[in-house]
TrEMBL record:
Name the record gives this protein: Myotubularin phosphatase domain-containing protein
Gene3D superfamilies the record matches: Pleckstrin-homology domain (PH domain)/Phosphotyrosine-binding domain (PTB) (2.30.29.30)
Family: Belongs to the protein-tyrosine phosphatase family. Non-receptor class myotubularin subfamily.
PROSITE patterns (alphabetical): PPASE_MYOTUBULARIN
Alphabetized GO MF terms: protein phosphatase binding
A single GO cellular-component term on record: cytoplasm
GO biological process: negative regulation of autophagy; phosphatidylinositol dephosphorylation
Organism encoding this protein: Aphis glycines
Domain Myotubularin phosphatase: 127-509
Length: 555
């Protein structure tokens, strides 16, 4: 859509927030802009648009992609959630002040208002996904009489962050589930996530509300203990450190007491919380943006960010869970405190390691839908601000900045980074390319699609935003996300977690800092050759069969 049609084609939503809708004579530059351009800047309720006819440049930025706005005299610097830094020089200081105020007002707009009032919204549509909860649950049960689909959470009355349907043990009734929910933080009672072919199962929940008085709940014990047969043992993987899990008792939380869960062995596999991850991300992005530093300073910054250490620790924990299920044939329950962050990372990565279906495009989309969206990862809260806002909030005394940043995190990005690490080690085991992962990161922070809207299924169902789902979009872009190296295998893949095996995701963190045009062309040429080779093999097989059939007829 060309910018020339903006005057007639776009409604001016949020007109009261936009002081200057259009400004000529603006210069665009910056560390992530290859060439300086002068043209027109347009602000709408949905996008920030820069266009230069003379230099054939047009840039569209979703307002919600803008993390922070910095102004100095007549210059505005935009730092985006996708890590880009873009600088605009205005003719006058007063114009820069008005433009900066307009953009800041727009990016502070509530997500619900934003999604319900934009030029692409179609309010006759509802949020729809090809991976509805019912079909996901039916696929998980798959005729196994040990499990059933429960409607105990109908209308989200037991747990506001769970879907309405969950898979639970057949010998546990709904009254027990309600009691268990009251004993678990935010009502997140134990539910089934994955059934391994060797008979072990993977479950998740939130922490038990044991408290300092070591309370117990017999119904909760029944729910968890019923998963194990006589003589069987299981593991409870706690994503907190021993100290943090113990300290949680003083705040009303805690962990399962061994006396009440005798068949379960508790193991602490400490992973950092979402806010720590975001601070770490801000440091690694800062390091990647510093293209003039020495090698020694670069390595110090990279190490000081601790991001790759978080990636390593997370992969190590996921391998631990996978080993319990696959090699020991022991069932596993994973939880932390709320269990809407680190728990979901482990649950997802474990299935990626063990289940080849999750390495297909549809399987990976289904995994995200099931273990992130339907499982209640608070995308709206976690992605309200990005790494630049996190860095500013640490040094800013502004209370509004800290409030806006509160609750933000980088958990989902960590999961996709870990997925990239496994993909990097096993490039032939994934049907999708790493471009798919990069695109998922961007859409999770700001998107024209409804998939990552809200904090849970209840938000998306009760407040439909009338936008299409992301998975349908990827269906139309399949050639851009397919991996030509893919060879289907049913094998379990065990990623190396040795320090030298963990690499920087260059295509994510360095995509704006380094011109990767030649690398992309080189990679595309290889992909085209591989694709052509596959086509020729198929053709050769077809011709061979036709020749053989022709020979048989002649005899």
């Amino acid at each position: 859509m060309g910018m020339l049609g903006l005057g007639n084609g776009l409604k001016m939503e949020f007109a009261d927030k936009i002081r200057i809708p259009k400004l000529n004579g603006v210069t665009m530059r910056g560390p992530h802009i290859s060439n300086t351009s002068t043209g027109t800047l347009v602000i709408t309720g949905h996008h920030l648009i820069f266009s230069s006819r003379s230099e054939d440049v047009e840039l569209w930025i979703l307002n919600r992609n803008i993390d922070i706005v910095e102004r100095k005299l007549n210059t505005i610097t935009l730092k985006c959630k996708d890590f880009r830094i873009i600088v605009f020089d205005m003719p006058y200081i007063e114009q820069a002040t008005s433009v900066a105020a307009s953009i800041e007002s727009l990016i502070m707009t509530d997500e619900t208002d934003y999604l319900h009032h934009n030029m692409f919204s179609n309010k006759n549509n509802e949020y729809r996904s090809p991976f509805d909860v019912k079909s996901q649950c039916e696929q998980l049960v798959a005729g196994d009489s040990m499990w059933r689909i429960s409607q105990v959470n109908k209308s989200y009355r037991v747990c506001s962050t769970y879907p309405e349907l969950t898979v639970v043990p057949s010998n546990v009734d709904d009254t027990m589930l309600i009691a268990s929910a009251k004993f678990r933080q935010n009502g997140r009672f134990p539910v089934l996530c994955y059934r391994h072919e060797k008979g072990s199962v993977l479950m998740r929940s939130s922490q038990p509300l044991v408290g300092s008085s070591s309370k117990r709940c017999k119904q909760d014990e029944r729910v968890i203990n019923s998963v194990l047969g006589p003589g069987k043992r299981g593991y409870i993987i706690d994503t907190r450190s021993v100290a943090n899990a113990t300290n949680a008792k003083a705040r009303g939380g805690g962990f399962e007491m061994e006396a009440h869960y005798p068949q379960w062995r508790r193991v602490n596999s400490a992973l950092e919380r979402h806010n720590v991850l975001l601070d770490s991300l801000s440091k690694i992005v800062e390091a990647c943006n510093d293209t003039t530093c020495t090698i020694e300073r670069w390595l110090n910054k990279l190490n000081g960010s601790e991001w790759l250490s978080h990636v390593k620790d997370t992969l190590n924990a996921a391998c631990l869970v996978a080993q319990c299920l696959n090699k020991e044939r022991a069932s596993v329950l994973v939880h932390g405190s709320e269990s809407t962050d680190a728990t979901l990372v482990l649950i997802s990565l474990t299935q990626l390691i063990l289940n080849p279906e999750c390495r297909t495009i549809v399987g990976f989309e289904s995994l995200i839908e099931r273990e992130w969206l339907q499982a209640g990862h608070p995308f709206e809260t976690r992605h309200k601000s990005g790494c630049y806002n996190a860095a500013r909030s640490k040094v800013s005394s502004s209370s509004s900045s800290k409030i806006f940043h509160h609750g933000s995190g980088a958990t989902f990005l960590l999961f996709l980074d870990c997925t990239w690490q496994i993909h990097n080690q096993f490039p032939c085991c994934f049907q999708f390319s790493t471009n798919f992962l990069s695109s998922l990161v961007d859409h999770s922070y700001c998107s024209d699609f409804s998939t990552f809207y809200g904090n849970c299924e209840a938000d998306r169902k009760n407040n439909p935003c009338g936008k299409p789902n992301l998975w349908s979009h990827f269906d139309q872009k399949i050639d851009e996300i397919i991996n030509p190296l893919y060879l289907h295998t049913n094998n379990v893949i065990w990623p190396s977690v040795a320090p030298f095996s963990i690499e920087l995701w260059r295509d994510m963190y360095l995509r704006w800092s380094i011109d990767q045009t030649h690398q992309k062309k080189y990679k595309k040429s290889i992909d085209d050759l591989i694709k052509r080779n596959k086509e020729l093999k198929i053709l050769a097989t077809k011709l061979r069969n036709e020749t053989q059939e022709s020979g048989n007829k002649s005899t």
